[in-house]
């Protein structure tokens, strides 16, 4: 019920601000946008995706496919543990934990 009343209020607020002069102004502004698009050689239906956007899309797809585990690193650590050559750096581990904690405190307050 409350959501409906908020929705109605929001619609009323939008329609109150859509005065005829604003609508006319918006219609007058539209041809200039179209002319800029036509000067650029684009129609209203053209979409241009930048190289950066393509790279981001590819990186996102790769991240979604990944399980987040560096399997080569895991294999190397297992090998070192089996051979008894693994060296655990407790100072570096403690510092990383504290750094993560500080970041969380800064982020969450």
From TrEMBL:
The keyword Transit peptide does not apply. Residues 45-98 form the Anti-sigma-28 factor FlgM C-terminal domain. InterPro entries: Anti-sigma-28_factor_FlgM_sf, FlgM, FlgM_C. Responsible for the coupling of flagellin expression to flagellar assembly by preventing expression of the flagellin genes when a component of the middle class of proteins is defective. It negatively regulates flagellar genes by inhibiting the activity of FliA by directly binding to FliA. SUPFAM superfamilies: Anti-sigma factor FlgM. This is Negative regulator of flagellin synthesis. The keyword Lyase does not apply. It comes from the Bacteria. Transmembrane segments: none annotated. One of its GO terms (biological process) is bacterial-type flagellum organization. Keywords: Bacterial flagellum biogenesis, Cell projection, Cilium, Flagellum, Repressor, Transcription, Transcription regulation. Belongs to the FlgM family.
